[in-house]
Amino acid sequence: MHRGERRAKRPNVVWSVFVFLAVSALAGALTAGLALPFAGLAGVTTAKAHDTVQFLPQDLQTAPLAQKSIIQAADGKVIATLYQQNRTPVPLKAISPVMLKAIVAIEDDRFYEHGALDFKGTLRALLRNQSSGGVSQGGSSITQQYVKLSLINKARTPEEVKDATAETYERKIAELRYAIAVEKEIPKTEILNRYLNLAFFGDRSYGVEAAAMHYFGVHAAKLNLPQAAMLAGLVKNPTGYDPIDSPVRAKARRDVVLRRMHELNIITAKQSQDAIKTPVIDPKKVRVIPSGCANSTYPFFCEYVVSKLKANNAFGKTPEERENYIETAGLVIKTSLDRKMQTAADLAVAKHSKATDDVVAAVTLVEPGTGLVKAMAQSRPYGAKKGQTAYNYNVEKSYAGGFGGFQNGSTMKAFTIAAAIGKGVPTTYRIRSPQTISLSGQNFSTCNGPISDDSYNPKNSTTTVLDPSMVDAARASTNTYFLQLSQQIGLCPITTIASKLGMYDAQTLKPLKQVVSFTLGSAGLISPLMLSNAYATFAARGMYCNPQIVTSITSLKTGKAIPTPGPNCHRVLSPGVADGVNYVLQQVMAKGGTGAKVKFGTSDLAGKTGTTDENKAVWFSGYTSKLAAASVVADADPPAHNLINQVFNGKKLRDASGSGTAGPIWEAALQGALQGLPTTKFVKPDDIIIRGNVKDLPYLKGMTPADAAAKLLSMGFKVQMSHGPQVDSDAPLGTVAWTNPRQEDGAPEGAMVLLYISNGSKAQPPTPPVTPPTPPVTPPTIKPPPGFPTCPPWDPRYPRCKRG
Questions:
Q1: Burial category of 253 from C-beta neighbours within 10 Å (exposed 0-12, middle 13-18, buried 19 and up)
Q2: Which protein family is named in the record (predicted)?
Q3: 616 bridge partner residues
Q4: Which stretches within 288-380 are classed as H helix?
Q5: Helices 142-154, 97-107: inter-axial angle, 10-degree rounding
């Protein structure tokens, strides 16, 4: 394009200004005596001036002010601030009168006298700009500045920001037209109020309230003369006059404002001089309001909260839109975090681990019956330095910071217990469970048909009686018992219950795999949050609640609640089944159980240890009826290695176990969190849950076989003498040593009771090897695979059913 062509298409600058002045006059913004003569000099009629600018914008469409959102703990304490612009809008009455006078004095001293355009100031600027060949001086009124700031605030793309700030006459004319409309519709005082809430005062402080709090630690209503003058001087060049980085320049600019206020007789000479003598700011009073979770006292918890908010489609169609909304909408986000319990969890982790350890420790606390996540703690702090991490080891990998769990070992046995009790298996049910068994090639039924492992010879990591009951097996964490039990009742009911209790793979976010060793914790990766919330369901007597971390959201501006997912609780287990699980896991905490070392207090406690293959992770998960917790110690640096010989709590581990390694963290966290709360007890399960549908057996030890048989026959039982040799017992020679079923287990009505006779050796008797009959139950509802027995092996009505 030739220069002549470009010049022909570009409007003459003077022409544009004169046309606008003419229209302004017609609009009533400027006096006819001032504007129309210029239009006449330019050869412009009133009608032509109107036609020339009729397509200029008129009504200013403003966007809501971006203001900071805050995240609170359950008690209302702010734990994080999120913002793009640190702003707290305030009404005019909440701004010091001297601040209003200072900003008007330095930015637009004729603000209350002229209309949208200060003709004198604009003409002066135009003349200087014409002589310089560009836009070197503004001369903008406060109304014009408000319009410009509003257009910038509304811009959402870099292109829109560029257009809103372009140094062109076209943009200036559009702003003037907007300003005319604003002056018609909005009172001067409201324009000034909006301007002061929009203006940038440097150092990420937007609006006079945020600036006053940042630089002086006072609200805008409490600003004094030198403080107001400093802030008023900042708006011209917030970076150049930054009182923190450039205190000398800031003071010089502030003093210009003070002298101008004196020239305008707003303040006296003495007031001006006294104010000039004061320091521009007191660095000790500067208050920095950090933004983002990295600056929070609880960064991992905060990031998990934000990840849940970003997943809420109500806040925008895309993650970017949702993030922008969260950081600009002025929200009060209240969370479930209990600071007292969080402190207890932090202290527990700090007491039993160190940030510099080779391995990590983590613990999560959840409230049963509500799903409220009360606390999360871990050994490695937030950060990018050595010994720090950005991973949250307590949660699933649903966002970048979620680690995604660890294998959780025998803590999965709780779901096998729940499924078995739900199928009618009494807690006294015994299975012959040697230290090692062969399950190679044996079928396990699943929801989708049979599966097997061609080479699987599991063993126990602890020693127990040969024919343990469910309670015995839970106390000693007997692998061979629970594998056989899961084979007998089928994997489908176990995995179904685990799924209903919120268990899924924390890494892939997919369902857990139905594998032969499901009950030993090899079906996927589990997070402490997931496991503690699942165990909380047992504590809540079968009422499952989705983990809840955000409890309410309200608007800072309106105070109105914003809909957010609330507690989602529903029954997944009958109270009787849950009571039965609590009964079994409570015995784990009793003397001789794997959890006995970490038992404390007078409240009923239930729990389960967990150790993975090669000790890559160890767990303890347990609860009272009021609070559940799960702790883990694991190698979090892939590829994971055995914990043995790795540094934990500053020393090399010589042994790693759920009770001895993860258990102390669980104990300290839960004990501290429960401090001051009342003692609680579990509901005792019905006797039929514990022993099945049985009758009590009499105490026969030491009785003659004849007397014992007569007693049993009179009660309707059948009697048979053991055909083997007499057994070691402290009962007198030739008398009854014990029975099978055992006296404490009872027996179904009419069942056969086997009598063992003592040899009088006074030796402690070994455990009887025979599995006793137990009560009838309803056969499993799942369809078994071909060739799998269709009878429950614990039911004496099916004597030929395959038994362990």
A1: buried
A2: In the C-terminal section; belongs to the transpeptidase family.
A3: none
A4: 299-310, 319-328, 339-352
A5: 100
CA 795/CA 694 separation, integer angstroms = 12
**pLDDT score recorded for residue 406:** 97
φ/ψ bin of 773: left (φ > 0), alpha (ψ from -120 to 50), beta (otherwise): beta
331-335 and 205-206 as β-strands: parallel, antiparallel, unpaired? unpaired
Q: What residue type is assigned to position 757 of the chain?
A: I
Is residue 568 exposed (0-12), middle (13-18) or buried (19+ Cβ within 10 Å)? exposed
What is the C-alpha to C-alpha distance for residues 136 and 472, in angstroms, rounded to an integer? 88
In three-state secondary structure terms, 310 is: helix
8 Å CB contact between 770 and 754: yes
Helix (H) and strand (E) counts for the chain?
Answer: 26, 20
**Cα–Cα distances in angstroms (integers) from residue 54 to residues 20, 47, 116, in the given order:** 10, 10, 18
Closest of 48, 49, 84, 51 to residue 66, by C-alpha: 84
Burial label for 59, CB within 10 Å (0-12, 13-18, 19+), is exposed
Rounded (5°) CA angle 754-755-761: 140
Residues 6+ apart with CB under 8 A from 317: none
DSSP 735: S
What pLDDT does 136 receive?
39
Give yes or no for a contact between 492 and 374, defined as CB atoms under 8 angstroms apart: no
Taking the C-alpha atoms of residue 690 and residue 644, their distance in angstroms, rounded to an integer, is 38
State in Å, rounded, how far the first CA of the chain is from the last one: 94
Distance CA(775)–CA(411), nearest Å, equals 27
**Quick one: which of 498, 457, 495, 496 has its CA closest to 479?**
457
Q: Which residues contact 283 (CB under 8 A, 6 or more apart)?
A: 244
Domain 695-757 in CATH 3.40.50.300? The answer is no
Thinking of the domain 409-674, which architecture would CATH place it in? 3-Layer(aba) Sandwich (3.40)
pLDDT given for residue 337 in this prediction: 98
pLDDT number for residue 776: 41
Segments of the chain with pLDDT less than 70: 1-58, 119-139, 763-804
Sign of the Cα torsion 35, 36, 37, 39 reads positive
What would the two tokens of residue 550 be?
């955000």
Q: What is the pLDDT of residue 57?
A: 57
Three-state DSSP class for 637? Answer: coil
SS3 content of the chain, % helix, strand, coil (to 5): 40, 15, 45
Q: Running DSSP on this structure, what letter comes out for residue 424?
A: T
Architecture of the structural domain at 84-285:
Orthogonal Bundle (1.10)
| Cα–Cα distance for residue pair 488/737, rounded to 1 Å | 31
Asked if 504 and 510 touch (Cβ cutoff 8 Å), the reply is: yes
Question: d(Cα 211, Cα 192) in Å, to the nearest integer?
Answer: 16
Residue 17's pLDDT is 52
At which residue do the structure tokens 């590829």 appear? 639
- The confidence score (pLDDT) of residue 766 equals 53
pLDDT tens for 349-388 read 999 999 999 999 999 999 999 999 999 999 999 999 988 9
The residues, any chain, with a CB within 8 Å of residue 783's CB and separated by 6 or more, are none
Are the C-beta atoms of residues 491 and 788 closer than 8 Å to each other? Answer: no
Contact 668, 643 (CB under 8 A): no
Residue with tokens 């209503």: 221
Q: Which ranges in 87-141 belong to alpha helices (H)?
A: 97-107, 119-132
Give the tens place of pLDDT for each residue, 226-242: 999 999 999 999 999 99
Domain ranges of the chain: 3-48, 84-285, 409-674, 695-757
pLDDT recorded at residue 764: 57
The per-residue DSSP string of 135-199 comes to -------HHHHHHHHHHHHH--SHHHHHHHH---HHHHHHHHHHHHHHHHHS-HHHHHHHHHHH-
d(CA 282, CA 209): 18
CA distance 56 to 60: 11
